[in-house]
Specification:
Elements (H helix, E strand, L loop, with lengths): L2 H21 L2 H16 L3 H5 L8 H7 L5 H12 L13 E5 L7 E5 L4 H19 L8 E4 L7 E3 L2 E4 L1 H5 L5 H4 L2 E2 L2 H4 L4 H12 L4 E5 L2 H15 L3 H4 L5 E5 L4 H11 L4 E8 L2 E5 L8 E3 L5 E7 L22 E7 L6 E12 L2 E8 L13 H12 L6 E9 L8 E8 L10 H15 L1 H8 L7 E4 L4 H8 L17 H6 L1
């Protein structure tokens, strides 16, 4: 065992002890975070506008500060972007994380000197948690890669801005610099396909032990490696045994990954976003990710089926229940207040508090009142593929409200893996399996099928690389961009039809 791996185990034990301290006292931990946030932002413009000086309790806060999304917080953010100080948080932010917006175009999420360290610590602690639980630390001697955005940053009124993953690249600890790949020059390549080709060239002969990124884009990297080396990724990288991912559910990709790698590898799920690093998988045995309650973020939760009602009830950590779909609301030391990030979560454990990401509050299908969420379609597809050799590269689902013939239906756009066993022998039978799994999970959907409002879902095959070509056509190929699992309209569907 190397000195580096011994040191990693000792450090992992130390961090585990600290994690136990705050995770064993969740309510008190969140109360302290809440009090600190209010006190530090009391003299900001937002704090003055919302009477932070009078806020003593969460009930006070909920009364003074409404839930907002980016569009509603944008007037304050615009002032920060123009260079004004003490608007949402003390002083100016260190960075703006630039993300793709909806109606407002690009979004600028502030990162402050108080919030930035938690992004780095959470990613580090996820790996240390794995080391402590498994005793596996040998991978620290190998090469590590994170498929990320370019670290080249722009500047806006004295504040640097870029993609979050590119900003984080500037904070890689010194002790990991020699292990980190790809090279800085390759990481700066903007065109995603060119970048992946360059990464393949740089890494194909290296001792890769840890690989991380969004599954869909890591899959592209693996496919190019396999094509060039003409052997499974696991045979090419014999010491590769840890895959770290975030952004989307890995389950729809797992079978494909095992086929590309040639064996199973351990994985760690992360829940990062430009707005904060919220959770990471702290156990290989337990389901869900540990919600980070001591990281400068105060959490609120709103039941997703009540979210669009007038004045929905806002729950704090001590009030949540298992297996309920909640919209995640946060206030943070980056200057976000009662902020709706758009993600929905479900708790899988309350001791400690662990969550899974169940979908997006805006990514759902309820064209007929069925309230279908991302977790349900992913689980249904997984069930339908069990005990088969069918492999799926990517998929998305949309409603077909006005079909040419017959009843409306849900249309599933699926790109099957032609290099596995190909598509199902009987597509109608496969569609029925998915439909059955959907009906078991979602009583609204079942009622619509039974009541002849909807007919059984329809599968539309997408040609090889069809989803990649679609993402490229809208300028969102690679990096941290993700294909929505669900749409309540036909915007994506019409491009794929």
């Amino acid at each position: 065992m190397s000195l580096k791996s011994i040191a990693a185990k000792l450090f992992a034990a130390r961090i585990h002890k600290k994690t136990l301290q705050w995770s064993s006292n969740p309510v008190a931990t969140q109360q302290k975070v809440f009090a600190d946030l209010i006190r530090q932002a009391e003299d900001t413009q937002f704090g003055k506008d919302h009477n932070f000086a009078s806020i003593q309790t969460f009930a006070d806060f909920a009364q003074h500060v409404p839930i907002r999304d980016y569009e509603e917080l944008k007037p304050y953010v615009d002032r920060v972007v123009k260079g004004e100080e003490n608007v949402l948080w003390q002083g100016k932010p260190l960075y703006f994380a630039k993300t793709s917006g909806t109606t407002s175009g690009a979004k600028y999420i502030p990162l402050t000197k108080e919030s930035m360290p938690f992004h780095i610590q959470a990613a580090r602690n996820a790996i240390l948690s794995y080391i402590h639980e498994t005793g596996n630390a040998h991978f620290v001697d190998g090469k590590m890669i994170f498929l990320q955005g370019s670290p080249i940053l722009e500047e806006k009124n004295g504040v640097k801005l870029g993609r979050l993953s590119g900003i984080v690249a500037h904070f890689v600890p010194r002790y990991l610099q020699k292990n980190r790949m790809p090279s800085w020059e390759t990481n700066c390549i903007e065109d995603w396909e060119t970048k992946v080709d360059a990464i393949v060239e740089e890494t194909i002969n290296e001792n890769m032990s840890v690989i991380s990124g969004i599954p869909s884009w890591v899959q592209m990297y693996f496919e190019k490696l396999q094509q060039k080396a003409n052997k499974p990724v696991g045979e090419l990288f014999k010491n590769f045994n840890l895959f770290i991912y975030g952004g989307v559910n890995f389950e729809p990709y797992r079978a494909k990954f095992e086929n590309l790698i040639g064996r199973k590898v351990d994985s760690i799920e992360l829940f990062p976003a430009s707005e904060g690093f919220f959770a990471y998988q702290d156990s290989q045995k337990e389901r869900g990710m540990l919600l980070l309650l001591n990281s400068g973020i105060f959490y609120e939760f709103v039941k997703s089926d009540e979210f669009f009602t007038d004045k929905p009830k806002r729950y704090t950590i001590g009030e949540v229940e298992l297996n309920v779909n909640y919209v995640l609301i946060l206030s943070s030391n980056a200057g976000l207040w009662a902020y709706n990030i758009g993600d929905t979560v479900q708790f899988t454990s309350l001791k400690p508090y662990r969550v899974i990401v169940s979908g997006r509050i805006k990514h759902y299908i309820s064209a007929f009142g069925e309230h279908v969420i991302g977790k349900e379609v992913e689980h249904a597809l997984k069930q339908a593929m069990e005990h088969t050799n069918i492999r799926v590269n990517e998929f998305t689902v949309a409603p077909q409200i006005t079909p040419k013939d017959g009843l409306p239906y849900h249309e599933w756009f699926i790109e099957f893996d032609p290099e596995a066993s190909g598509e199902p022998e009987n597509m109608d039978e496969f569609a029925l399996k998915i439909d059955h799994a959907m009906r078991q999970q979602n009583s609204y959907y079942d009622d619509l099928i039974v009541g002849n409002v909807l007919r059984t879902l329809v599968i539309t095959k997408v040609s090889k690389n069809g989803f990649q070509n679609y993402m490229k056509s809208i300028g969102k190929l690679g990096g941290q961009n993700k294909l929505p699992r669900l749409s309540n309209d036909r915007k994506i569907a019409d491009q794929l039809s």
